[in-house]
C-alpha cells in the first residue's frame, strides 16, 4: 500500500465488503451512497487495482479485494482491541464516554430516566445511549456494553462476550381506569398486540391465547406505539411493570394471569472486564434493576 493510503477509505471499503453494496454500507456508516462510492473509487485509484466487481446484485470482492479485506479486517480488530483496553489505563476516577446499547423500551423508560444518579456518582463520565431493535455488535465497538431483554431460556452467544443475568423483567396487563370500569371482565376489553414481524414472540402469542385467538384491535411492531395507544384508552396492553406501573394514566388489572416475562442480561466484551468506566456502569445498572424489581413486587 502507498504511504498516503487513507484509513478513511479503508473504513468505507470494509463497509461495502460486509454489506455487499453501496446502500448497505452508507446505512451502516450514516452517510450517502455517493460518498461511499467516492471513497472506494479513491482507494482503487491509489492502489491501482480493481477491488470490487460491480454487478446488479451488488458489489463482489475481486481476488485483490479479498486479499485486502483480510489484511484490513485484521488491522481493524487490533485497533478495536486497543480502544477497548483504554479503560484499564485510566486512573482511579471513572471518566470518559460509555456507550450503552439497548432496546427502545429499556432505553427510554428504564435507563434514560435513571441516569442522573450515575452522573452524580461519576461527574467526569459521559453516557451515549445506542437505542435500536437490532443487537449492537460489541466486537466492532458499536457499544461498550449492552442491556438486552431475551426470550426465556435464550443464551447470549459469542465467545468474546461476558454476560451477567439480571433476572426477569416482569410484565402485567394495563389499561386506563375508564376502560377497566367499563369492562368488569377484562377479556371483553379490546386489546393491543404485536404485528406479524413478532410472530415468534412468546409473550405476544400468550396474550392472543388469553383472548381465545380473537384478533387485537391494534397491531404494532413496537411497544412504544402500543403504550401510547393504551394511554389514550384504545385498549388493554401488556407492559413491563417498570413502565406501566409508573404511568398515572394506566392501572394494572387485578386478578389477571401474569406472562412468563423476559430474561434481562447485561453484556460486554471480554477486553473490557477491567475497564473502570464500563464496570461502573454495569454495577449501576445491576443496582437499578434490583431497586425496580423490589419496588414492583
Provide a descriptive summary of the structure in words.
Belongs to the LysR transcriptional regulatory family. Residues 5-62 form the HTH lysR-type domain. Keywords: DNA-binding, Transcription, Transcription regulation. This is LysR family transcriptional regulator. By secondary structure, the chain is of the alpha/beta class. It has helices spanning 7-19, 22-29, 33-47, 63-84, 104-111, 116-121, 177-182, 202-210, 223-231, 241-244, 276-296; strands spanning 52-55, 58-61, 96-102, 125-131, 145-150, 161-169, 171-175, 192-194, 218-220, 237-240, 251-252, 262-269. The chain has three domains: 7-85, Winged helix-like DNA-binding domain superfamily/Winged helix DNA-binding domain (Arc Repressor Mutant, subunit A); 90-169 and 262-296, D-Maltodextrin-Binding Protein, domain 2 (3-Layer(aba) Sandwich); 171-252, D-Maltodextrin-Binding Protein, domain 2. It is 41% helix and 21% strand. Strands 4-3-5-12-6 form a five-stranded mixed beta sheet. Strands 10-7-11 form a three-stranded antiparallel beta sheet. The model has no long low-confidence stretch (mean pLDDT 86).
